Amino acid sequence: MSQSEHTHVEWPSGGAPDDSVLPFQVEALGVRGRVARFGPVVDDILNRHEYPEAVSSLVAEAVALTAMLGTSLKFEGKFILQTKSDGPVDMIVVDFSTPGHVRAYAHFDRDGVAALEADGERIEQKDLLGTGYLAMTIDRGSASDRYQGIVPLDGGLADAANAYFLQSEQIPTEVVLSAGQLVGGEAAGGTTWRAGGIVVQHLPDDGLPSAMSVDSGDVPDDMIVPDLEEDDRWTRARILLRTAEDHELLDPTLAAERLLYRLYHEDGVRAFTPIAIERHCSCSRDRVCDMLDSFTADDLDDMVKDGKIVVTCEFCNAVYEFPRGTLTGTPEENHSSQL
């Protein structure tokens, strides 16, 4: 079947709005994927913190990646992306809850990031992250239904995600991510943060060959595994995806469907119903109070400053204050027996 016979584009009426993930499929190439486009949501997440620009960009890309992967869950639960590394940004946590709630924060060394900025060179993600690992956790709500996959982190987020799916899931995957500030936001002369990303995975239909065979790590050391040629369809899908430019991923005037058309119209691309994403933090005064009451009275006394205990949510930066007299704590004997 020739490429011209596949040429068609289908997408839902109305188009995908900002702050959404748009699933799509290119049947002729045996790939499925998702496009993430973020505006107000990622801007809201970042404006709750005083991150340097490079850290904000990194967190924004992590949000886009997590949303694309989290919206693929077929059940109610959570998808958590977390990095732990030895670079100036030593931790990023993005928490996605179905059907479309996301929150995120980063822990970083401000002096370390400032030193990179002072060099005047372009700051790469590997410079911020250093080496460590990226963990992806799927949580169905109970300990028995919790799964975590870990992959080494010695480059950027997209590289780590590609390596994870190839090594752990045996699914050839290609991810592109971008984040940046748009001049001229709601406030006159202001800027707003945007983020975007696309992920494609080779998931051939029944009866079609896989894109490639992947060494899962179970092959004996003394066995020689021949190099296998990559499927031409997957090669084409990857090459076309890599033509997507940063400004196309971030442009609020370029609809996600139009971007897909630019990339895959010759092969035929079908877009499905977009999934709306909103910033949502699960913290609350009652939940923080319950957490504090799980400590012993002595532990609570150690937390007191100026007659009260102050707790700040790392995700949304909300501040909760509790006069010491409003908290009873867990009796010492009960607390000890719980450990």
What does this structure look like?
This protein is α+β, with helices and mostly antiparallel strands. The chain folds into 2 domains: 3-279, 3-Layer(bab) Sandwich (Hsp33 domain), CATH 3.55.30.10; 285-338, CBS domain Like (Alpha-Beta Complex), CATH 3.90.1280. It contains 12 helices and 15 strands. The chain has helices at 3-6, 40-47, 53-70, 110-118, 125-129, 157-168, 232-241, 246-250, 256-264, 285-292, 297-303, 332-338, and strands at 9-10, 20-26, 31-38, 78-85, 89-97, 101-108, 132-139, 146-153, 173-183, 191-202, 269-271, 275-276, 278-279, 308-312, 319-323. The strands form 3 sheets. Strands 1, 2, 3, 9, 10, 11 and 12 form a 7-stranded mixed beta sheet that branches. The protein has a 6-stranded mixed beta sheet with strand order 8-7-4-5-6-13. The longest helix has 18 residues, at 53-70. The protein is globular.
